[in-house]
Automatic annotation (TrEMBL):
It comes from Peribacillus cavernae. Keywords: NAD, Oxidoreductase. The keyword Oxidoreductase applies. This is 3-hydroxyacyl-CoA dehydrogenase. The record marks 141 as: Important for catalytic activity. Pathway: Lipid metabolism; butanoate metabolism. InterPro entries: 3-OHacyl-CoA_DH, 3-OHacyl-CoA_DH_NAD-bd, 3HC_DH_C, 6-PGluconate_DH-like_C_sf, 6PGD_dom2, NAD(P)-bd_dom_sf. Residues 187-282 form the 3-hydroxyacyl-CoA dehydrogenase C-terminal domain.
Length: 283
């Protein structure tokens, strides 16, 4: 199946990153958000990152210009879905919202359209079963920042067809990514590992084992991680990580119980980089 037109639903951190990479890879991209302000911020971010990439020599000016032409921004879901070959959803990690969105898209999109959720923990089987096309439903778990991270986890639902798996693997290759195929199980591979490491780091901070800076430094220099676990949670967003942990706690049990400290920070509005304060403060 030829994949030329990709619609990305959700213009937040992950959605705009996916749109950025897809447009540079030659796909025609429609980036949708219900908020005009969010779509506008996404446009500013993408154009700024592309110009920085030109300045650093990662891409040529011609590539940037072609990529910018490849992206269309809209708040109209019908416009986003009616001609899409592939829809990638990147909205909040709330399963009812995802199901409602895909039910709408199921009515809008052509029969050949493949649906992919960018969920980091939730079941593509469960979401896809609410549509008329579970064989064309899959999870494509990208990583932040999308233009730097090489991996896409591809999670096959119970009814996902082999053609769908192979098609999204090829999309990943066109984007310059490596892919791993994972069976549908809560948290997949990376989110289960990341959640445990991050949650233990938060507990150590709460217990006074070390400062946030020294916990992250120990993990980076002692375990050779490129980013400390508390820095990672700030990047992902404390609210997002908490939702992930709550889902894993519900589905996998006690070892995924969220640290009381992350619950307290989210209640206090400390969400990480997205609003300037989490485990660290940001400009």
């Amino acid at each position: 199946m030829n994949m030329n037109k990709i619609s990305v639903i959700g213009a937040g951190i992950m959605g705009r990153g996916i749109a950025y990479v897809a447009s540079l890879s030659g796909f025609q991209v429609t980036l949708h958000d219900i908020s005009e302000a969010a779509a506008g911020r996404a446009r500013q971010y993408i154009e700024k990152e592309m110009k920085k990439s030109v300045e650093k020599g990662f891409i040529k000016t011609r590539e940037m210009e072609e990529a910018m032409i490849n992206i269309e921004y809209t708040t109209d879901l019908v416009k986003a879905g009616e001609n899409a070959d592939l829809v990638i959803e990147a909205i909040l990690e709330i399963i009812d919202l995802k199901i409602d969105l895909f039910k709408q898209l199921d009515e809008i999109c052509p029969p050949h359209t493949i649906f992919a959720t960018n969920t980091s923990t939730m079941s593509p089987t469960e979401i896809g079963a609410q549509t008329s096309r579970p064989a064309k439903f899959i999870a494509m778990h990208f990583f932040n920042p999308v233009h730097k991270m090489k991996l896409i986890e591809i999670i096959r639902g119970l009814d996902t067809s082999e053609e769908t798996v192979q098609t999204v693997q090829e999309v990943g290759r066109r984007m310059g990514k490596e892919t791993v195929e994972v069976n549908d199980f809560p948290g997949f591979v990376t989110s289960r590992m990341n959640s445990l490491i991050g949650n233990e780091a938060i507990n150590m901070l709460m217990e006074g084992v070390a400062s946030a800076e020294d916990i992250d430094k120990a993990v980076k220099l002692g375990l050779n991680h490129p980013m400390g676990p508390l820095e990672m949670v700030d990047l992902v967003g404390l609210d997002t990580r908490l939702r992930n942990m709550e889902h894993l706690y519900k589905t996998l049990g006690e070892k995924y119980r969220p640290s009381p400290l992350i619950v307290k920070y989210v209640k206090a509005g400390r969400l990480g980089r997205k609003n300037g304060i989490g485990f660290y403060k940001y400009e």
